[in-house]
Structure formats: C-alpha cells, structure tokens
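Reopening: Inactive serine protease 35 still failing for me.
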Amino acid sequence: MGPIPLCVLLPVTVLVVMVAVAAEEKMVDDEYTWPQWKVPLVRKRRTVPLSSPQFSAHSQSELSGTCGIKCQSRLPSPSLDDLEQFLSYETVYENGTRTYTSVSVQGLNEVPSWSGNTSARSRHKREVYGPDTRFTISDKQFSTKYPFSTSVKLSTGCSGVLVSPKHVLTAAHCIHDGKDYLDGAQKLRVGILKEKSRRGKGGKGRGGRGKAKRRKGDNNKDEVEEKEEGDGKAERKGKGKGKKRRSRRSAESEKPSFKWTRVKKTEIPKGWFKGVSDGLAADYDYAVLELKKAPKVKHMDLGFIPSVKKLPAGRIHFSGFDDDRPGTLVYRFCSVSEESSDLLYQYCDAKPGSSGSGVYIRLKEPGKKKWKRKIIGVFSGHQWVDVNGDGMQQDYNVAVRITPTKYAQICYWVHGDSSECQVA
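Support: Ran it again with your exact input. Result attached.
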C-alpha cells in the first residue's frame, strides 16, 4: 500500500483533533454542570394530633457530641423502616397545636450511592479560624438583591433561606433543642430584608423618623425597624438639590431594615429528636417554616451534589446574620475540608446567628450555558465532633447537606407532593 496523500491525511487529523477537543470540553463542562438524579418519593401515611408543646427550651450557642466522619462509618446503614421513622415529622401551627405525620419512602434503590474521603484533621480554634474572612453586606444595593435577598432572619436569633415564595429552610436547633420547642418559637417570625423608603409616610424628612417605632405588643428588639443612619447632621446639611444630596449619603445610610412576617407552621423531621436517631441527630438538623404571607422576593432552589470536594473549586457560599455584626448581612465562602454522606465539615468563619443559613454553590444548568445557584445544605454552626468514635472531640463548622431523601422530604413540605421534584 502506497503513502496516504496529504490532502486526505490532513482533514482526518483535523477531525480527530476536533473530536478529542470536544470530548475534553464536554468532560470539563460536566464538572461545572448540575447533575441530575432521580429522587425517591416521600408519601404521607397518617397524621395524628399531639398535645401542645411546652415551649420551654432555651437556645444553645453550640452543639456537641456529634458523631463524626469515621464514627458514622462504623454505624450500620439505616434500614428502610429506620429511614421512614427519621423522615416522619412534627408540625406545629401558629395557634400552638401540634401533629405527627408518619411517611413512607418509595424508590430508594434508585438513589445514587455516595463515596467520599473519610480522612479527618484536628483543629484547636473555633468559629473563626485565623484571619476573619467574612464580608459585611451593608449596602442595600447588594443586600436586598439576589442572591443575598434570599437570606432571612428568625426571631429566635438564627438565619434562614427562602426556598419557595413562602417557605424558609433553616436549622432545626433554631426551633427545637431535641426535647422541646424553644421559648421564642411560640410566636415565631421571619424578617425579610427590605429597602428603606426615601420618604416615610408619617415621619420627618427623607428617613421617615416617625416610622422607626416598636410595634404594639412587640418585646423583641429585632422586630424594631431601625432608623436610617444620617438622620441628624447629615439630614440638616443636605440642603442641596436631588443628585447632590444623594451623592453625599454614605452606604451606611442605605442600610436596610426588616419586614417581619408571622410563621404559619413549622415542620421538623423526627430524626432530630432525642432518642430517635441517636448519634445521627446532627444529620437531621433542618426545618421548614411556612410563612403566612409570601414576600415579593426571589427564592433559591434546592440542589444535590454527590461530592462537593470533587467540584473544580470545591467552595461553598452562605450569608446570614451573625450575632457579632448586628443589623447587617454577613457573607462568606470557603472550601469544604471533609464530607460525609450527610454532613459538610469546613472552616468558613461564622458566629452564632448564622446558623440556619442556606449553603449554596453555582453550576450550569444541564444543556444550557446559564449558571444557577442552588442550596446544597443548611449551616448548622460550630460543633464538637467525635470524629473517630473514640470520644475525642474536634471542632468544625458543620453544615447538613441536602441528600436525595431530604430533597424529597423538603419538596413534600413545600409542594405537598414530592412527585413534583422527582429529578434533583
């Protein structure tokens, strides 16, 4: 056989190169694309009434005794009966009544298995690790815009995230200590960031001083709409025309306030309750609140990632209302250090108050070039973790990850039918 002509060889070579490049681009693109998984179905079996809660528990600044990565690996996998018990839930209504709902789980064998790193490292600091890398989002131009606008504040002092027009995802320990509901959960409210109006209806000047009053019957200072800073001298000095006066106003004077909305009902998985899931309680540290009135704010969808550490950046993001920076939204991002099937172990700088924040990442939608943020976990807070199962505890900032079964359960709480969310 003679030599192949160059005019034939060149197009073939170019075609091979193009196919190889396309395959490589697809592989890279897949790494940045939300995976699609079939989600099991969560069905209601029976709902029975319970006695009203005592609302006698007190909030805890940190949790302890969490069964860690290697500790969990030694525990037997929960049976279907166990899982259905963990995913059964209590509902508390605004009038103080309470119910228990048992559920069934279908299609569990179609859920993808998880495999991750089981190593662990020791740390000796807590909450803020090394230099504080948090960002304060104080300007309303940012804090009241997506994605920061999805973050909300609970009247119990925690944070949360909007997952539907009228549903908030938060941490269970912000509502319940494992034995009883918190004393502040009886009249639970959610604060939505809102922009200050330039003229208050009943107030003086642009700030609307007359509007910065405590509502009748409200004892919680967090439920007071703050005055805009700069009402004093800055207000008197601003005698110029429109643009000149606006240009002198600082970002601090643009700080937003909260619009508070009552919670209609609260739902918490039984896996969080003491004596139900034993050492796995931290895996179920999440709850969903239904608001009486839907705020006109864009929400963030839920997502599921088998392994965050395998993502190109491996970073998570979340915003909340940390106690040491009152009245402002605090944003942070960091890489995940370790992960188990239900928890994310990381060192994102945080303080009490940020518990319940929605942990999210940004990936491309399948078949599209558009990027989309989705919530993949709930920030639980600082915890002392029994990593190896030998009683020796190490400290981490921990987040509860959204698994397919939790995705189905939250979807059921939000939509009343988990079949509407069969693909995560």
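Confidence is low (pLDDT under 50) at residues 12-28, 114-125, 199-253. If you still see a failure, please send the error message rather than a screenshot.
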